[in-house]
Amino acid sequence: MNIKYILVFAFSLFFLSAGARPDKSKLSATTDTLIVKAYTDSLILYKHLSDSASTVRIQNLEYPETDARFFRIFAPATFYHSIAARKMGLGNIQEKDTNDMEGEIDNALLNVYLHRPDLVKNSEKLIADAGKVKENINAPIRNKVEYVKEAAPLPDEKPEMPVEVIVYKPNFWTFSGDYYLQFLQNYVSGNWYKGGESNYSMVASAMLQANYNNKQKVKFDNKLEMKLGFQTSRSDSLHSFKTSEDLIRYTGKLGLQATKKWYYTLQLIASTQFMRGYKSNDEFVYSDILSPLNINVSIGMDYNVSAFNKKLTGNIQLAPLAYNFRYVGRDALATRYGLDEGKRTKNDFGSEMTADLTWKFSDMIKWKTRLYAYTTYERAEIEWENTISFQLSKYISSNIFVYPRFDDGVKRDDDHGYWQLKEYASLGFAFSF
Fold first, then answer.
1. How many whole angstroms separate alpha carbon 358 and alpha carbon 370?
2. Is the pTM of the predicted complex or chain greater than 0.85?
């Protein structure tokens, strides 16, 4: 059997058996059986022929052991342009020998192109566009790099407007003050330790504060209070005016934070007055500058008060150990202020407590209170100063001042005992910052 017809017949039967054959209605069952049998016989015969051809070619070294050209028969039907060019080209072209395997494969594919074009799904162009499965790289791959000349750096340009950097040091100091000048109605008990009498008068007050707090457990509070009031009285034929309010008091407090609101503190309180103190129609001097001078130094704990949505503020000092020094410059006043006759100084130790609070009821009403207590466990001094301020406008205010005092270190009064009282109501100018 000619191998040409075997290949054509085998290739046709291959595609028909894969389902791409004419309508089943045109073929009978007997025809199907014959086609299958003929296809099987053809494959067996092709196997023998191909084995023989392969053996001969290997021996003659005409072809390599593996011939990849046979894949075109069993691969999906593809239209190759080279086959059509060789078989249908113009001119005197001799067909290749029937033993030429490539020519026989071309004939088999050409037969399919002519008789069953419906089986041809691919073309040689589509395969070429898809590219090869593997391409060997015979030359190194080099990236194209564009070189540029190194540019010199641009010179630094000064800004059009100079920039001035200012570094501020942290300021841990705060300053505040309160001043007023007011007219008042004054009441003084007959045994008030600095003298004076009830009358109408005027008073000026200044309070300055300079407080340091570095926000790192150290604070240093300083407060200076000064008051000076004058009064005149028709009943006094010896004095054209007398002092009704006279005070110089400094309070210093150095604290080291223990907890959020408690501080270990060292407190100093020093107080005296500006001028001499008299009583009406009396030439005796009851008090004077440095007569007396009181200095109290204490060690204890200080508590910062902040309550009622910060409307009540201030601090409370508790000192289990306190030293009190008293100096009286006038010899005649020594016994009046608890000193032995002929002595000018007195030293004693005890305990001390100071509460300095401000309660702001509203923008117009404010209550300031200071409670000071000192005891040597043999004698005691208690001072409670209360000032209720009514801010009527930015610069106009009214004050009510109530000052009870207890001191059992002086001579007892027949009417008031060891208690003393001072109060006044005033209206005048006020300014604070």
1. 9
2. no
